[in-house]
Amino acid sequence: MPQTPAFDDLLALFQDRSAALRDSVAGCPDLDVRVPSCPDWSLRDLVAHLTKVHRFWAAAVTNGPSGKPPTVAPADDALTAGLLARSAAATGELVAALRAAGPAVSCWTWWGESDVPTTSGAVARHQVREAAVHAFDAQTATGTPRPVPAVVALDGIAEFFGVSHGTAGPWPHEPARVGLHAAEGESWLIDLTASGSDVIDGRQDTAADLYGSASDLLLTLHGRLPLDSLRSEGDRTTLENLLSWPDLG
User: Fold this and answer.
1) CA 50, CA 56: separation in Å to the nearest integer?
2) CA 106, CA 118: separation in Å to the nearest integer?
3) pLDDT the model gives residue 226
4) What is the pLDDT of residues 208-245, one digit of tens each?
5) Is 34 exposed, middle or buried (0-12, 13-18, 19+ CB in 10 A)?
6) Cross-strand bridge partners of residue 199
7) Would the pTM of this model clear 0.85, i.e. be above it?
């Protein structure tokens, strides 16, 4: 199982993926172009969404322990004129909040029902994954898709199972075991039962397996690439069910 990057490395990866999104958008002459992987959004909408996300989590981390999500004050647009400038300012705001808190401060998160910690460190880790996937969205919209860096994708897969599966509730199909195998040498064995999804150890029989680069595996889990972009073995229906659960929108 890959080791989660150190906290300072997570912050650097978060900044890198956020900048990658902005770099892709900066080179596009039409910010109203649709985002194929998020068809309800334009590029402008995508950047605005990430700006709001970064400011929201900056407030959550700054607030510390709380039983409810933060109320975010409106941005001072006079100080951050321009779409990309507002995005960069929001990214900086979240990085500053995380640096001030360190990795172990308790804060509100939406994944409290999972086994993932509700801490500033977990927020940093989750935001790396979100920025990476949305950077790919922007790159796809501008015709410049690039793989998610392996260090981001490998940890992102593990974080996906912890947070996205950890809050999805019971597996709504027949129990199954699925293997995911990254070309970089890491694998995950997933038990899907009425108790939910659990990553287990060992080399056990599976109903189905998926093989590909860590980037392709992560993007397929997020619905950004089709199942057929990966090599698969075993029961296809189980794999289709896996990739449609949970419904990430």
Assistant:
1) 10
2) 6
3) 97
4) 999 999 999 999 999 999 999 999 999 999 999 999 99
5) middle
6) 190
7) yes
